[in-house]
Amino acid sequence: MTTIPTFKQSVELSILVYEPLVTGSQLVTDQLGSQLENYQHTIAAICGYESANLTVRDRQIDIENWLSEGVGRHIEIYNPALVKIWEGFVNRVTINLGGLSVVRGPLMDVANNVALTYSTVDTSIIPPAVGARVTSSFATDADSQAKYGELTTILSTGGVSVTEVSSIRDTFLAENKEPKTSQQITLGSGGEISMTLDCLGYYNFLKKYVYNQTASTGTANLSTVLTAIIAADPNGIFSTSTVNITANTLAVKQYINDNQSAWPQIQGLVARGDVSDNRYIFQILNDRIPTYAALPTTVSYHQRLSDPAQRIETPLGIEVRPWDVQAAKWLFVPDFLIGKPQPSSLRLDPRMIFIESVTYTMPWGLSIQGGATDKLSQKLAKLGLAGIGTGTS
Amino acid sequence: MTDAILEISDGTTTISLIHPSTGFHLISWTPAITDYKDGGTFQNPPLADWRQMRDSKWATAEEPFTITLNGAAPDSAAFRLQELRRLLEKANQYWTTDWQNTPVYIAARMRCETNTRYALVVKGRLGNDRNFYDQPVTGDTTTLTELPLVIERRAWQANAPNGYDSISIGQLYTYDGTNYGNVNDSGVFTPTTNANEVFLANKTAMPQITNVHYYDGAFTANLQGGAFPVELIPNGAGVGDILYFGIDTSIADSGIFQHIVVDLDAGTGTAEFIWEYWSGAAWSVFGADVLDNTSSFTVDGVNVIVIPPAGAWSTNTPGGALPTGYWVRARISAGSFTSNVSQQNRNIYTVNNPYIELLSTDVVGDIPAFGRMLCVPKSSIDTLVSYDATRILGGLRSVDRGSSFNAFINLSDTQLPTGVTVAVSSGCTFVSNTLLSATSKLAEHDASSNLTGQITIAFTAAIAQQYQGRFRVFCRYNTNDANQWKLQLDITNSTASFTTIFEGTQTGFLDAVVSASGFGVADLGEYITNAAQIFDDSGILRFGFKLTSTSNVGSGTLDLIDIVFIPVDEFSFDTNGDGSGTGELSTGATDWTNYLDIGSLLTSKRNLSSIVRLRSDDNFNNTWQTLNNGPFIWQANKQQRLWILSFSPSRITSYVQVYKNERYLSLRGNR
Asked: In whole angstroms, what is the distance from residue B273 CA to residue B334 CA?
């Protein structure tokens, strides 16, 4: 007797695929879960749903459809309890049809709202002088925006003429308004028919719009400014709910006019922590609801090295399946450094792991990355410093 | 005595591999037993003894046959080879194309075995031919010996692919010592496969209709509990004559009712009815239409009359010897009957169960059977809320895990499952609500008195054990305020203090946000418990929940109707329409035009399909998107309940039918 594995898939994950959110999010399929060959997702404390990769074997006709229509599609992953455990969008589609491999994307390289920051050149004097930095008007592509949403790129160059500015900007727009496609043919090997969907979490859309605020001066609560930056999303992707945004009264300046995208601004705000220099986390999770909160002060998970099933459990002893494990939680290893006294602070206990990022790999794989939880980083961020030396060599 | 069967078929073309005369003959075959994919998924950590299986999914099995084709003339032999290879190609095309939708299967039965088993062919291949120019191939008769035939198949089934058997189901309610529901005229539980006879509630309630009386100037004796058939309405009944349905409130767990299920030998005539309830001082017409599926008692058979919520339904004593209770009456306002109306058998009853129950003998086999359910909503215009059923969840749970487990717990001071108590504190109080009764009350959070309201749900030690498992938790509510309410569910192991048992200051492990007025269902996420870990400080097994609602403004009220624990650890589904209205189960009329057909029996290409069909002709209308943790299954050889939650008002009802295709690893015998 021979037993033939058909799919390697063994955990019953459900997947809903929709057209891109900006196009109305009509359901494409609810059957992808049963076709999964490989699946992996990563959730991080600093951004929430970070990335996911799906490999599926399918028919040529279906794979070709994914190549032409798949970039930007909205993906939701559900656990066996039918609870959403990850969501994001298809950033890149890679298909393999025998010896032909075709890649389309990434979506995050698409630009359909383009401006150019440049230096003016005064050619009336000898020698010509490079003048002030200015930003051109935006050139847009309505068709691309209708399909993928407004995706902003501000190019930067040195001294150029006004005529060259529009030429550079418009050429860039024309060449980047659609996801790029590359192909490779490898002959002499059998190959297979499959596709891989490289997905990203929606926080990446925070990188694709610029946030300026020139109407108000003075300072405001950090959490208020954070909310305003998210609310400026031109694509309506992020929830306006503030239910998961913890009030943070740390005063920060309101006036912003640096043509900087939202994401580095949010990173900068999050890095400042609160008035007591406590670390905060920022995540975009289910339904694109922003979460901004201080680090938890209690343990969420236990993992015993001696457990033959390698379970993650709650302190109560209830199993947390690997696909359900979240980032920005504390994990305790009870059978490590047994008998050592427990420090007053969680972060001082080597048995405590603050989950900076967690990667689940189907069916039962889990990788947890621990991270720093000090206060110095927040102090330095408030000063605009990235780090500090020890003064010794 | 039955003959042996071993054949490959698509239902039209059938090729026997043990042909009694000229044709294919089986030379050798070692029947395969399917195994888990990769032998199962194991965890094998270096710091632990042994390894542990963590997961298992069935792989397909490969059946290697060696067959001989003999006794046929050369052209006939060529024809038979072609037919077999074409059938096998058809089997392969079933999976690889959209246009070949006829499954090919193996059918097998041992000689003298009672039942045939079937297995869907995943891949088939007839290997190399013999040398056509060698003996014994050549000659007047052609014999091709030792042809290798390899069939990759799924598990054996009781029916050919896409086939199924009906399962007899029914509802049995015992109230005040009397059996109600799908019972015979002696009150004995009598499951049925008949359409439209098994009803499902979208709530849990306790009371049954204890009294039915006819009035034409004087009241009859109680028509319930007697010999059947019993006359409900006499020939000649006319204007002013009345039929009363009531629940005697001297009985424990009494309350109002929202459905009246009858089994009529219907009457003829022109009688028209006005439906009324007692509103405290007078008989009042319901604010919305009663959905009378009996068309004024003129439709034969089992049917349901659905009563809309009453504004202030009060108890009364209608007269005669009728007891004090909650009464509904159907008064003839015009016309008359030209023949009598009888209740054919069983007591008239109301629908209280939100689950379908299968007995351990209903589904047999070696592994879980594939299943299918038809769910036909039967409700009416509802003044409380929109009544569109746009989302339905189901969860299967074996009864041996706890026969007292009830997925629906009313957040009330009455009609609670055995061993469960509900209490309110902070901004929550019990207030009158017509969903249960005038005297019992549902929890209501009045944000003007306190921004936070709390409800505690306690389980006795014995009952706590029956709530082990994985659940999706929902809370149904009705609010008059569109401001944001946050619902948070905490687990506790103390009936005294309801201190959360999570370490430190962590609060809340499940929460949801309500931000629109009206009826709604708050999704509280996934809840997991292993009761073995839930002990109080005295070591007594005990646990409960604390439901906290928090308003972000100090206004409005939030009525908390019930909390629903849909089991998700055996099989569950979550299916919904696209919200556009097209293909939903209702159309906004007084009846429902569509029904839901969900299951894993109609096509093997999908592991589960969720189809909305037209009630008028059963034709396809739309497909609902579905989340499911595997194919639609019934557990084999187990008493089990499929709990159903519809995202609609709590009183809605449906009738259901269910089907199965049992699965086996090897022989069926007479099972």
From this structure: 7
Helix (H) or strand (E) holding B125: strand B117-126
pLDDT digits (tens, 9 = 90+) for A294-322: 999 888 899 988 888 888 988 877 888 89
Contacts of residue B571, Cβ cutoff 8 Å, sequence gap at least 6:
B368, B395, B396, B628, B629, B630, B631, B632, B633
Residues forming a β-bridge with B307: none
Least Cα distance to A310 among B3, B656, B42 occurs for B42
pTM: 0.85
Residues 272-291 on B with a CB inside 8 Å of A are none
Asked if the C-beta of A65 comes within 8 angstroms of chain B's C-beta atoms, the answer is no
Distance from the Cα of B473 to chain A's closest Cα (Å) equals 10
- Which of B52, B607, B627 to mutate to probe the A interface, most A CBs <10 Å? B627
B331 in contact with A, Cβ within 8 Å: no
Chain A residues with CB-CB distance to B471 below 8 A: 81
Per the prediction, chain B carries an average pLDDT of: 86
> B56 at the A interface (CB within 8 A)?
yes
Residues A196 and B257: their CA atoms lie apart, in Å, by 55
Collapsing DSSP states into helix, strand and coil, what is residue B599? strand
What is the C-alpha separation between B272 and B334, in angstroms, rounded?
Answer: 5
What is the percent of chain A where pLDDT is above 90? Answer: 59
| Residue B472 touches partner A, C-beta closer than 8 Å | yes
| C-alpha separations of A56 from A27, A34, B385 in Å | 18, 9, 43
Whether complex ipTM tops 0.90: no
Lowest mean pLDDT among A14-18, A76-80, A323-327, A375-379: A375-379
Distance from CA of B163 to the nearest CA of A (A): 22
Compute the distance between CA of residue B393 and CA of residue B373 in angstroms, rounded to an integer.
12
Task: Name, in order, each residue with C-beta under 8 angstroms of A391's C-beta and a sequence gap of 6 or more.
Answer: none
Task: Choose between B382 and B284: higher pLDDT.
Answer: B284
**What single letter denotes the amino acid at residue B140?**
D
**What are the pLDDT digits (tens) for B117-139?**
999 999 999 999 888 787 666 56
Q: In this predicted model, what pLDDT tens digit does every residue of B189-248 receive, in sequence order? A: 999 999 889 999 888 989 999 999 999 999 999 999 888 999 999 999 999 999 999 999
pLDDT of residue B579: 63
Please answer whether residues B198 and B657 qualify as being in contact, where contact means their C-beta atoms are separated by less than 8 angstroms. Answer: yes
Phi, psi dihedral angles at B158 (to 5 degrees): -75, -25
Q: Is B142 helix (H, G, I), strand (E, B) or coil?
A: strand
Cα pseudo-dihedral B175, B181, B184, B188, rounded to 10: -50
The predicted structure's pLDDT at residue A15:
93
Q: Which of B521, B515, B525 is nearest to B488 (CA)?
A: B525
Q: Which of A5, A82, A298 sits opposite B505 (nearest CB)?
A: A298
Q: Tokens 């190609």 — which residue?
A: B89
The DSSP symbol for B237 reads -
